[in-house]
Design the sequence.
């Protein structure tokens, strides 16, 4: 382990980043239609002026070079659809919302997942094991577009305890983060249970037991650190997945997060927003996985990188 | 002393309880607005907000839709109908307190027509003398446009043709004034809440993308005494299901639509919150008249007559729409076109005869007709119903295919289709908004249809001042259209939405225009 490993991982990122920029840039431009095709006809003269405004009258290759130049300055360009905003501003506005939703969901997922998994591992093959694990199967099977509307129906429309949509008050945060966290909690509970049960067979646990520690003490002091390794390695992709995959939840609850911009920009052929969000997601996923690798090495002395 | 304090305290409390924060209206406003620049936007969500932020020369009566004084307190129309002289009111102000003068309108209309603005609605300024030439670069000097001011409060507008609906056109956002100094200082960003200066009953306070746009009462508005609402929140809610739930939990008092599958349960609701009224829009099919076999008018007519429109609206569309018996929706600018297409299946025998006449008895030998629609469950259902009617009534086979929105637009523009789904909503309340679309070479004429007689009728109508005679001309145009059938009209749109009984001063009308300056909360 050491700085060489970190450098190596970072070095790999450069060519991949180049590839992502190039692929997304040309793919979205080769899709039929463009940002200015609209239901009402636009006269050729007006279309020409619109294109000139966004440098779309230049040859594709010089547009590509221009994109790189702007990118180096950290400028992701103006949005075609949201006329008075730049892509940087859109990300500045929407990313914190996605991150907040993602972190809240992940908190739910870890809280529910680890406690359910811990409970199950403490008394395997009893009702304390079966009930949480049955729920976790349910959680894995049920997609967010089922869980979300059901939660809305019960807590929003019938009981009227929580708002049905929006992102203004803290009450608005509860249902969407639960919806999104639920599926991940299910995975985490199974990973926790599996990890903890595996650890229980290890010799150092037997030693602990021989010293006369209670099961609870063993679980908290000795098993958790090793037993949670699978959970930790799952958290990176989970966070990335939660942030990038929140689209459905964002749509159900009308949350102005980044996921909606990501999808809508493709539909609107908002070239610059497509590019900006894709690059951001790529970076997020890369960074999350990278951080997990490092945390993994810290947690488990057996993991060594050369 | 103590009691005085307490009394004052309770009085203030009571007052705030009575008046403050009750005059807030929350509306569902559909998709996120692209911008709030009156000269560059094109959508309905944008218009809903802009008509309350800005005010043109004339306003609109919320009941009758007649023009009411706006920034102009009065106007005179010359005998030939070509020169409009507006007297601007002296107390009309921008939200920053500056007065509004004729030069603001001159600047704004030049901006609309300036090719560099690249406005998609520039054609709303083509009625002004020289407008079209200036927009298309043929006229270089904007000072030659037909807009002049004798003094800061007199605006004289010279039109190309007497345009009987010119006053109603002035309510359209493309002809609203914008504040020159703000536009020039901030460029594209002038429509941000921190920059915007407007002149309507409300001013922009907050804009959170994909969430909400808040506007508050503008104290500098000349008619601020009429405005009762303190604050209006326009929520960007794209999903009709979400909107409905927000309405049910009282987060919204007005929705922009109702989920199709919820319309029939709502019609059984007796509280009267479901609003449903005719709207100036037609749902129709384009026919590519240059594509064999559809280049044969007999076949086009057979296809048009073989559709049972009543069945279609009753069992497929299901929103209380009316079958389209003509192209222009009845009531557009007071015009009611005569019925030329069947409501039901009564003219199927005639359709069969026409098809046989075209050389395809019982549809034998006719290649399948391809119906194109943009991907959507409702368009699909309608296309399937048409497919079935053509097959059962005529023996004509049809195949369906769908495309994602932008691809669909591309296909339509390049006329690479046989039959394509379409809809048209009036830009202004006059038959011209529907009928001039089908003139030769019009950018929105996707049928590739051209008829000299039709073109000259539309041109003639533009110059006719007598409204009875104008309608006769439009009827003749409709007759040609429905004989030639480059379009197959299917149904007339209906506006369907939910409205809380707490909202007062809101009137249902065919243009679906509800100026919020007249609206208040009970």
Sequence:
């Amino acid at each position: 382990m050491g700085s060489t490993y970190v450098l190596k991982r970072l070095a790999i990122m450069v060519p991949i980043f180049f590839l992502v920029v190039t692929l997304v840039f040309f793919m979205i431009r080769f899709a039929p239609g463009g940002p200015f095709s609209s239901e009402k006809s636009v006269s050729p003269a007006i279309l020409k002026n619109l294109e000139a405004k966004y440098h779309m009258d230049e040859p594709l290759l010089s547009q590509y070079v221009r994109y790189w130049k702007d990118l180096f300055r950290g400028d992701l360009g103006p949005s075609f659809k949201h006329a008075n905003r730049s892509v940087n501003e859109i990300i500045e506005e929407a990313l914190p919302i996605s991150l907040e939703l993602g972190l809240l969901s992940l908190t739910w997922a870890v809280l529910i997942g680890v406690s359910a998994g811990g409970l199950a591992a403490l008394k395997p093959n009893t009702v304390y094991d079966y009930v949480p694990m049955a729920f976790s199967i349910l959680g894995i099977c049920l997609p967010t577009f089922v869980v979300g509307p059901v939660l809305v129906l019960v807590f929003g429309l019938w009981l009227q305890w929580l708002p049905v949509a929006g992102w203004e008050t803290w009450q608005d945060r509860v249902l969407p983060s639960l919806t999104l966290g639920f599926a991940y909690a299910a995975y985490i509970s199974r990973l926790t249970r599996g990890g903890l049960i595996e650890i229980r067979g290890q010799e150092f646990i037997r030693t602990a037991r021989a010293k006369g520690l209670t099961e609870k003490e063993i679980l908290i002091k000795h098993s958790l650190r090793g037993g949670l390794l699978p959970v930790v390695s799952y958290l990176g992709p989970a966070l990335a997945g939660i942030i990038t995959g929140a689209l459905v939840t964002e749509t159900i609850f009308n949350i102005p997060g980044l996921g909606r911009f990501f999808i809508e920009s493709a539909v609107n052929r908002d070239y610059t927003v497509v590019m900006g969000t894709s690059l951001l997601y790529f970076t997020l996923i890369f960074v999350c996985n990278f951080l997990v690798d490092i945390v993994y090495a810290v947690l488990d002395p057996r993991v060594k990188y050369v | 002393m103590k009691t005085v304090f307490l009394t004052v305290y309770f009085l203030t409390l009571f007052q705030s309880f009575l008046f403050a924060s009750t005059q807030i209206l929350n509306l569902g406003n559909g998709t996120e607005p692209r911008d709030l620049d009156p000269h560059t936007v094109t959508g309905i969500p944008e218009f809903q907000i802009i008509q309350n932020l800005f005010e043109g020369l004339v306003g609109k009566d919320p009941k009758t839709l007649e023009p009411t004084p706006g920034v102009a307190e009065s106007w005179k129309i010359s005998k030939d109908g070509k020169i409009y002289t507006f007297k601007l009111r002296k107390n009309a102000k921008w939200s920053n307190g500056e007065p509004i003068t004729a030069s603001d309108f001159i600047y704004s209309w030049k901006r609309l027509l300036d090719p560099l603005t690249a406005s998609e609605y520039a054609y709303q300024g083509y009625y002004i003398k020289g407008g079209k030439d200036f927009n298309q670069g043929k006229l270089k000097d904007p000072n030659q446009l037909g807009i002049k001011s004798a003094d800061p409060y007199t605006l004289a507008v010279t039109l190309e043709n007497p345009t009987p609906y010119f006053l109603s056109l002035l309510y359209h956002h493309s002809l609203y004034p914008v504040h020159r100094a703000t536009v020039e200082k901030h460029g594209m960003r002038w429509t941000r809440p921190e920059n915007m200066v407007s002149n309507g009953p409300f001013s922009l306070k907050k804009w959170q993308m994909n969430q909400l746009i808040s506007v508050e009462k503008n104290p500098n508005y000349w008619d601020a005494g009429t405005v009762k609402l303190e604050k209006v929140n326009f929520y960007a809610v794209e999903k009709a299901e979400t909107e409905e739930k927000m309405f049910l939990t009282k987060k919204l008092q007005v929705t922009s639509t109702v989920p199709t599958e919820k319309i029939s349960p709502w019609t059984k609701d007796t509280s009267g919150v479901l609003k449903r009224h005719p709207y100036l829009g037609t749902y129709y099919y384009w026919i590519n008249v240059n594509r064999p076999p559809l280049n044969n008018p007999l076949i086009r007519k057979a296809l048009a007559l073989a559709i049972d429109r009543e069945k279609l609206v009753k069992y497929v569309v299901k929103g209380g729409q009316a079958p389209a018996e003509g192209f222009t929706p009845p009531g557009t600018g007071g015009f009611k076109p005569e019925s030329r297409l069947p409501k039901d299946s009564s003219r199927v025998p005639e359709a069969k005869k026409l098809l046989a006449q075209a050389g395809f008895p019982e549809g034998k030998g006719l290649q399948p007709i391809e119906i194109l629609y943009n991907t959507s469950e409702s368009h699909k259902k309608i296309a399937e119903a048409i497919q079935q009617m053509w097959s059962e009534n005529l023996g004509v086979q049809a195949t369906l295919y769908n495309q994602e929105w932008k691809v669909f637009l591309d296909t339509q523009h390049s006329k690479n289709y046989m039959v394509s789904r379409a809809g048209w909503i009036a830009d202004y309340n006059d038959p011209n908004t529907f009928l001039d679309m089908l003139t030769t070479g019009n950018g929105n004429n996707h049928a590739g249809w051209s008829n000299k007689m039709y073109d000259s009728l539309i041109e003639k109508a533009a110059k006719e001042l007598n409204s009875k005679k104008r309608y006769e001309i439009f009827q003749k145009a409709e007759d040609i259209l429905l004989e030639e059938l480059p379009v197959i009209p299917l149904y007339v749109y209906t506006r369907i939405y939910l409205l809380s009984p707490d909202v007062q001063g809101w009137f249902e009308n065919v243009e679906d225009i509800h100026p919020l300056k007249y609206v208040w909360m009970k």
